[in-house]
Amino acid sequence: MLDYDKEADAYDASRGGEARAAAASEAVLGLIPQRPGRLLDVACGTGIVTRRLAANRPGLRVTGADLTPAMVRMAGARLPGAIVRADSRRLPFADGTFDAVTSIWLLHLLDDPEDVRAIVAECARVLRPGGVYVTTVDKAAAHDAGSDIDAVLAARPRRPAPDAAGTVTAHAVRHGLRPAGHTSFRGVDQGRSPRTTIADLRRGWFTQLPPGEPRTEEFAARLSRLPDQDRPRPDPVFGIRAFRRPATGQEHGTT
Asked: Mind listing the domains of the chain with CATH numbers?
């Protein structure tokens, strides 16, 4: 996993900045009921999306949580007094505290399947009855846009996707949540070019291709032979799933 303390300063600019944050927040809020309450943004990073969630839904009292000190500092500057440092696997909140919980671009980062289960369990735990959990899923697959870059990378080794929609749904259901909708949004300005993909390979962004290894350099060489080295290919389309904790009295299908 990347060192997010070191990544913090350049994080937003390298991942679509305000344009992608705007698209993400709009999609997330489309799955959250329009009513007052409290929202927790888990692993909020720099707060670039968290701030938009708060600004675009004034009726929600928004809290952000992240484990990385540099990210917490940046998010705290965007939302003073609303950011806490916390481990997503052990959230420092009582059961049923929030009306909505979000985790955007978190689950795909996890190497241990047990961590995915633990985070979904915690997000479910802190939801009130009737509350909604919204999370991104299938992030790696979203980048396979059918381009010549994807054709070159098709043979690369891959790990099982920790944020696969089926896996996340199974965890959510196991912890008392029910599927409540899905949507998608375009990763604005996130389309790969051959040159940026080579740089990402050599930075270790492809987790099964460590920097400096011969196979990594083989893929880099093949990418370097593609035409239009600086032309971005199609943007990814990210998927989002929503899950609801049944309201009191509906846990077993009663009304």
From this structure: 4-144+160-191+234-244 (3.40.50.150)
The answer to whether the CB of 245 falls within 8 A of the CB of 205 is: no
Residue 107, C-beta contacts closer than 8 angstroms, at least 6 positions apart = 116, 119, 120, 135, 136, 137, 162, 163, 168
DSSP string of 21-79, one letter each residue: HHHHHHHHHTTS-SS-EEEEEET-TTSHHHHHHHHH-TTEEEEEEES-HHHHHHHHHHS
| Strand 83-85 with 60-66, pairing | parallel
* Model pTM score: 0.88
pLDDT score of 9:
47
**HSE-CB of 60 using CA atoms within 13 angstroms:** 26
